[in-house]
Amino acid sequence: MDERTRADVERAEAAIVEHYPRLVRLTYLVLPPSIGRHRRVLTAHGLVQRALPRARLRRPDGGLPAQRGPAAESGYDVVRLRALRLALAHEGRPVRGPAAMPQVWGLRLFPRAGGAEELALDQALSTVPASVRAALGLWQLEGLDEDAARSVLARAGVEDPDAAQRAASQVDRETGAGAAALLNSGEFDPCTVQTRPTDLLRRRQRVRVVLALTAVLAVGAVAAGVSRGGGERAGHTPTTAEQALDPGRLLRTPNDQWADTSRVDFTAWPARGRQAGDQELLARALQVWAAPPADTRIMTSAGTSTRPPDHPPQLLYAGLIDNVMVVVLHDGERLVRYAEPEDATPTLHFARVDDADLTTGAALVIGRGHGWMRYLLAPWASDVTVRDLLAPGAPVHGLHVAPDGVTDRIPTPPEGNAGCGHWPAAQFRPSTRIGGTGVNPPFLVTDLDDLVPVHLTSLPPGGVPGGGPDAATGAPALQSWARTACSLGSLRGAGVRSVNNWAFAGQRLPEGGGSATWVCSRADTWRGPGSVTLQFLPPAARPADPGRIAGRAANTAACSRFGTPVVGDVHWQAKSGKWYLLAAGSQEVGGIDATGGVRATGSGSTLLAPAGQHAPAQVVGRLRSGGSVRALRP
Fold first, then answer.
1. Which of 309, 348, 400, 472 has its CA 20 to 30 A from that of 570?
2. Distances (CA, A) of 318 to 138, 412, 505
3. What is the DSSP string of 93-160?
4. 66 secondary structure, DSSP code
5. Nearest by Cα to 535 from 588, 492, 499
6. Residue 349 forms beta bridges with which residues?
7. What one-character-per-residue DSSP string does 409-426 give?
8. Global model pTM greater than 0.90
9. pLDDT for 228-271, tens place per residue?
């Protein structure tokens, strides 16, 4: 017999009281649908109430204190296991009378009716054994991973837990909207029920009406419509703020909506993760977001608000990442990542993602450690690989992605004084289900310490900003990024959305020095303003030799479609030791003038003039359309 100390029983009783709706929902799922919804509701309540273990009346060792053994199970684990055993025992059992159930006379009880997807899932569950339904419930309602669920199933008496989990995976895959979202709907909530009368003609006497209502109230307020979590009062209409903090109201996108929508961004992401059905975890994340405790660590990308949610947000992920419980939410404008380490204070990270698209909404950072990070990928990201931007000729390396979209660890770019010997970037290819025009080109992203990676693009010579930059995965683009990637470090934590390398000019160097390329690297932020870095790339001995910074500007339209005219200049030393002033402009520049310590004039888009190593010069480009543009300064 499963007998325990009085302290154990008290803990178990407290767990039943605190988690009653959660336990009843799990038990209801496991019970055979063939017994009917009314009997299933009452049996679920009855089994959870019977899950309370018995207390020992005396110590079995004759009064000696028990020896210290393994750590005791939590009260919740005990009652969950007992309720599961009782529910599994109903499989194949003939329908009996109501002796073991709470009694309700004159009323039929059943959960709220769902839609077509809930009905389809209920029908699918009716065709599989109770052990499969139990495995699905442990994953999607309890948030257990496969190993933990296997252990619980085995202890509950399931003969082949692995087979049960394989079958549960199949049901999950075949559920269009995702089993987690559907199992948390009203269709599977036996604590929020509707009532219908029976035998009306025989219940005209008032005493029977009183008995029926009393019985309903006695079943833990089943017929009174106890809310999912027990928080809403009967007749109370939740305020907008209360609705925003209700985990039961979180928005969950159907699994395949991304393949059939014109808006391919974070709104198309389905809810994923083993804890997507953990109402308590989701409630904690929402509460900390709305009212962070004093010791909560809060991180924000530049220009991002930390205001509480004003409507129910969308759930993107909830699960365990490297021993940290992580919840990711999206409110239409921001991503919010809630991280709950073991025995540590929670962390909130806010990032703007309004106007995301196929590439900028393709990944987010789900976990981060010393020298590594993991991405959570959009469902349309395929052919996932990793490459080193400083080794443009090296092959890419495959990156394993778990079924829930979480990648293996990826090295992070070097920081501070660590040098710049490598610069990892992830390469994705949009699924062929996007666009419907065959194979889509790959694209690159890299991590700059924000919640969302930065999309890297490239524009070759002759290209015009705003005209559709290349994906930065061709050989010329990779060669350009090999020499400019290390300059990305200055953009860390700036809320950068994308960085485009625009080769706006080429120039022949004096004394047979070869050809140089002028590149404008423009970083656009999620909040709007952008910054630019001009780099001069002369011939290099190694593919990753960095270029020279020729100019910078913040909060500028330069090198965008609204600021295509650009000019840069540098002092450069030839092999002979002689110094020159070199300047170059984009296509709109028809001439360049240098004044100050160097006086020279050129009629084209480049200028070359002998100059001292430190001779000051003011360089101005003359536009073909009239007007002028000054060279950017370092």
1. 472
2. 14, 23, 48
3. PPP--STTS----SEEEEEPP--HHHHHHHHHHTTS-HHHHHHHHHHHTT---HHHHHHHHHHTT-S-
4. P
5. 499
6. 299, 337
7. PEEPPP-TTS--S--EEE
8. no
9. 444 444 456 777 778 889 999 999 999 988 888 888 999 999 99
Per DSSP, 407 falls in state B
Using a CB cutoff of 8 Å and minimum separation of 24, what contacts does 611-616 make?
A: 611/571, 611/579, 611/580, 611/581, 612/579, 613/571, 613/573, 613/579, 614/571, 615/571, 615/581
User: 294-297, long-range: CB within 8 Å, 24+ apart, which pairs?
Assistant: 295/345, 296/345, 296/346, 296/347, 296/348, 297/345, 297/346, 297/347, 297/348
Residue 446 has which token pair?
A: 């890299």
Distance of CA 618 to the CA centre of its chain: 49
For 174-228, the pLDDT digits (tens) are 775 567 778 887 778 888 777 666 544 444 444 443 443 344 344 444 434 444 4
CA 416 – CA 173 distance, rounded (Å): 45
Beta strands 579-585 and 567-573, pairing class: antiparallel
| Per-residue pLDDT at 178 | 67
Helical packing angle, 75-88 and 6-18, nearest 10°: 80
Contact 407, 374 (CB under 8 A): yes
Q: Residues in the chain, how many?
A: 634
pLDDT digits (tens, 9 = 90+) for 402-428: 999 999 999 999 987 667 999 999 999
Q: Tell me the C-alpha distance between 530 and 296, whole Å.
A: 31
**Spatial separation of the C-alpha atoms in residues 630 and 634, rounded to whole Å:** 13
State residue 505's pLDDT score.
95
Of the candidates 488, 483, 478, the residue with the CA atom closest to the CA atom of residue 453:
488
Q: What angle do CA 492, 317, 442 make, to 5 degrees?
A: 60
The gap between the terminal CA atoms of the chain, to the nearest Å, is: 80
